[in-house]
Amino acid sequence: MHKVLISACLMGRKVRFDGRAKPVDDDLLDRWRVEERLVVHCPEVAGGLPVPRPPAEIEPGAGAAEVLTGRARILTPDGSDVTHHFVAGARAALNTAHTRGVGVAVLKESSPSCGLHEHYDGTFTGAKDPGPGVTAQLLLEHGIAVFNETELVRAQEHLDELDKGRVSP
Fold first, then answer.
1. Rounded alpha-carbon distances, angstroms, from residue 129 to 14, 58, 68, 92
2. Angle ∠(90,132,108) on CA atoms, nearest 5
3. 78: burial class by Cβ within 10 Å (0-12, 13-18, 19+)?
4. How far is CA 169 from CA 36, 67, 109, 145, in A?
5. Pairing of strands 102-107, 145-148
6. Which pLDDT score, from 0 to 100, does residue 169 have?
7. What would the pLDDT profile of 114-127 be if each residue is shown by its tens digit?
C-alpha cells in the first residue's frame, strides 16, 4: 500500500510562515489516516526555517526549476535569501518520500515550496505566477504524483492505480 506525503499545515499543524495552519477536513484524509497512509511533512520546517518566519517568494520572473538549478532565489520582503532552506526542505521531502514508500503527495497550493499549479510571484502583493513550488517540482521530477488540497479525489484515483500495479510510482 503506497503512502501519501501531505503538507503538515493541511493536517492542522501550525507550521506556516505566520504560525497558522490550513487544515482540510475531508473523508479521504480520515480514510488515509485510518489506513496509516499519511506521511506528514513540512518542507520549510524540515529545511531549517522557524515558525513563525517572514513570508518568502520565488523571485519575480522565475520558477522552481530555476531555483533548483541555482539560477533563481527565494527571498523574504527585506531581501533575505532563504533559498538554501527551501531547497534543503525539498530534498528532505524527496528523501522522506523515497524512504517511506510514498506514491502520492498532497501539497498546499500557492506555497513557494508546495504549490502545484501556482506560486506567489515574488512581489509580495498576493499576485501569483503559474507553476509549481520547489518541493512540488522536485517530487514531480522524480516521478511522484503531486496533487493539491482540492484534488483529493484525483489523488485517491492515482493511489488506486498504484496499488493495483497499473501505474508505477
1. 25, 10, 17, 25
2. 75
3. exposed
4. 18, 25, 22, 7
5. parallel
6. 58
7. 999 999 999 999 99
Report the amino acid identity of residue 114.
Answer: C
Quick one: three-class SS letters along the chain?
Answer: CCEEEEEHHHHCCCCCCCCCCCCCCCHHHHHHHHCCCEEEECHHHHCCCCCCCCCCEECCCCCHHHHHCCCCCEECCCCCECHHHHHHHHHHHHHHHHHHCEEEEEECCECCCCCCCEEECCCCCCCEEECCCHHHHHHHHCCCEEEECCCHHHHHHHHHHHHCCCCCC
The answer to whether the peptide bond before residue 50 is cis (omega within 30 degrees of 0) is no
pTM of the entire predicted model: 0.95
Of all residues in the chain, what percent carry a pLDDT higher than 70?
A: 98
Q: What radius of gyration do the chain's Cα atoms show?
A: 15
Q: Taking 70 as the threshold, does the pLDDT of residue 168 lie above it? A: no
Rama region for 13: left / alpha / beta (φ>0; ψ in -120 to 50; rest): beta
Give CA 88 to chain center in angstroms. 13
